[in-house]
């Protein structure tokens, strides 16, 4: 098995999980403390298109995951029919969506402010997609969020210490696994509980480096923008 940030390798990872002793769960799912558990989470920073491809692979392998949608993203508009249809298709595959919240967008001074703005964004997502949100993932969380174990009033905070201490937390940030590729960690069968975070743009098929994948993302986004301009300007 050749490790790399490709769809083929993601499929291999999903097959490993499917054949392992781990039970794949959602953040709001109850479980027995003695169970071997795996949380699959995707922070959708840029590419909803790549998210859908990963969601299909997971579905084919009997897995379920949570896709955290960035409401204030500068890269996609969830109210655009093209993007909203992708989110609806991800839901139709049996996955969940959560809120990817960017605290820098708002004048947040304390925990109450944070809760108020999270509630506002969640309500928009829930009403538009007719889906109950249970979990929130912070976009580039501040030291305040990371160091104070901030608990939200109404939702699960994926950055709470529970999901980094009770679960072994592994992220592919900047296309770099901090320890080793997740396929090796799963194969070693070392941890009872895993919390895996991926960023779908890292798994765009074209390009071996993060820079190359960004270029591919820009090219695809430019084609959509060109099409929208053609459709709206005669």
Q: Explain this structure to me?
A:
Helix content is 41%, strand content 16%. The chain has 234 residues and is α/β, with parallel strands linked by helices. Strands 1, 2, 3, 4, 5, 6, 7 and 8 form an 8-stranded parallel beta sheet that branches. Strand 7 (168-171), helix 7 (182-188) and strand 8 (193-198) form a beta-alpha-beta unit. Helix 2 runs parallel beside helix 3 (81-92).
Secondary-structure map with pairings?
Elements: H1 7-18, E1 23-25, E2 37-44, H2 48-60, E3 66-70, H3 81-92, E4 96-101, H4 111-129, E5 135-138, H5 143-147, E6 156-157, H6 162-166, E7 168-171, H7 182-188, E8 193-198, H8 210-232
Helix pairs in contact: 1-2, 1-7, 2-3
